[in-house]
Amino acid sequence: MSPETSSATSRRDFLTTSAAVTAGAVTLNLGSAVYAAGNELLKVGLIGCGGRGTGAAINALNADSQVQLYAMADTFADRLDSSLATIRREMKHHPEKVAVAPERCFTGFDGYKKVIECCDVVLLCTPPGFRPLHLRAAVEAKKHVFCEKPVAVDPTGVRSVIESAEIAKKNNTSLLCGFCYRYEFAKRETVRRIHDGQIGDVMILHVSYNTGGIWHRGFNDKWSDMEYQLRNWYYFTWLSGDHIVEQHCHNIDKACWVLKEEYPIAASAVGGRQVRTDSKKYGNIYDHFAVVFEYENGKKVFSNCRQIPGAANEVSDYVYGTKGRAILMGAKSEDSHQILSDKVWKFSGKNSDMYDQEHIELFAAIRAGKPINDGVQSAYSTLMAIMGREAAYTGRRLTWKQMLASKQDLMPKTLEWGPMPVAPVPMPGITKFV
Questions:
Q1: Claim to verify: residue 35 and residue 62 sit in the same structural domain
Q2: CA 393, 397, 402, 407: dihedral to nearest 10 degrees?
Q3: Quick one: which of 79, 165, 178, 180 is 20 to 30 A from 378 by CA?
Q4: What do you get for the CA distance between the two ends of the chain, in Å?
Q5: What is the domain extent for residue 246?
Q6: CATH number of the domain where residue 225 is located
């Protein structure tokens, strides 16, 4: 409904009008709140049909009894078809929830626009480089959004996301970002106890995301430079942000959560590529980072991440306070969710599936007309990860103030098939901070 429509329009009148429009959103606009009451059907659109997008669609369909996957978009038809087949298989006991007709399967760079037009809730799950563009289109169209992490790959994108979060706030639409660990009950309770002072004042965090190698989708002589980069998007900073931003951002976001959204004043880092030496295959990203984030009151976050096959794996978050320590996530799963101080505690309650829970809470908020909006918080967590990357790329100690003012913009000016130069592998001491 347009902004000029009277807020006195009744719920029944609105639904009668909406039902006549095939591509219309079944969303209610009562006064200033945008929500879907009761059991009205919500049409979900998936933008980005990779593994995470496919998983997010299944999570969304399981989160609410009256949601339906209605439209999908991906740059590539084969990725969309594979995703849709997986979703149909996973939802075989509720086939009515998958209502994606062929005419609502969109490909190419502009397919996202068509999904946004015909759905109530959009899931943004493309490579992160596209996130600010797609998010802006969704919030301007007054759609509810699930937006995967990270929310950007450069400071320009971060600022755009912050603006989009404000637009969503004014529209009273939900914007929930995929920092899923915040939706795990065990971590919520552990962080609550940290905030209650059970380990005293937090002074140090040590966060790690060390894993093996990741997928590579090969080469094809028929692919242009652009197609190769999109199909192997993880290896190009303009698309993924590098693995410190795309993957390790989870740990960095948890550090922000523990520190009550306090952000560092500066960061110093080292990083490089020891095994990703084939630039044709591995693009321009690193395979390891180690960052020290400094805080005004002397606190520090020690952050390290690595993607090297055959090396030891560890994904963990350790928190040290003036009266004890907490293990938010241990190197061994059984060591997670503990407080070790004068009063020892370990989580023993019923935990949640964090991927399901974030969608359960999103759709509950939409139904209640009480929007969730964690866009600004997620943007700053993303910026902190970018800060670590840029400190390593340049070999410089960078400040938060510099990051907020940075003009770096990695997105190509035009998106088209054909040649696509690859930026050089960053060299500390040579690469300049923008």
A1: yes
A2: -20
A3: 79
A4: 42
A5: 182-352+380-405
A6: 3.30.360.10
Same structural domain for residues 159 and 277? no
Domain count, the chain: 2
Instruction: Name the residue among 324, 328, 300 with its Cα closest to residue 315.
Output: 328
Distance CA 166, CA 385 (A): 22
| Structural tokens at position 275 | 């095994």
pTM value > 0.85: yes
3-state helix, strand, coil in the chain (%, to 5): 40, 20, 40
Buried b or exposed e, range 73-109, using 16+ CB within 10 angstroms: bbbeeebbebbbebbeebbeeeeebbebeeebbbbeb
In a domain, residue 411? The reply is no
Task: Using CA atoms of 166, 377, 123, 251 in order, give the dihedral in degrees to the nearest 10.
Answer: 170
Whether 390 and 254 have beta carbons less than 8 Å apart is answered as no
Indicate if 172 and 208 belong to the same structural domain.
no
229, 137: one domain: no
CB-count burial class (<10 Å; 0-12, 13-18, 19+) for 260: exposed
Q: Cβ(251)–Cβ(207) under 8 Å?
A: yes
Q: Which of 267, 269, 290 is nearest to 429 (CA)?
A: 269
Query: Rounded to whole angstroms, how far apart are CA atoms 307 and 243?
Result: 8
Instruction: Please name the helix (run of DSSP H) or strand (run of DSSP E) that holds residue 257, with its range, or none.
Output: helix 249-258
DSSP 423: P
Q: In what order do the strands lie in the sheet with 288-294?
A: 345-346, 338-340, 325-329, 314-321, 202-211, 300-307, 288-294, 266-272, 398-399
Q: Is the peptide bond before 428 cis (omega within 30 degrees of 0)?
A: no
Full pLDDT tens readout for the chain, 434 residues? 333 333 332 322 322 222 322 222 333 332 333 456 567 999 999 999 999 999 999 999 999 999 999 999 999 999 999 999 999 999 999 999 999 999 999 999 999 999 999 999 999 999 999 999 999 999 999 999 999 999 999 999 999 999 999 999 999 999 999 999 999 999 999 999 999 999 999 999 999 999 999 999 999 999 999 999 999 999 999 999 999 999 999 999 999 999 999 999 999 999 999 999 999 999 999 999 999 999 999 999 999 999 999 999 999 999 999 999 999 999 999 999 999 999 999 999 999 999 999 999 999 999 999 999 999 999 999 999 999 999 999 999 999 999 999 999 999 999 999 999 999 999 999 999 99
Number of helical H runs and strand E runs in the chain: 15, 17
Cβ neighbours around 223 below 10 Å, total: 16
Regarding whether 112 and 63 lie in a shared domain, the answer is yes
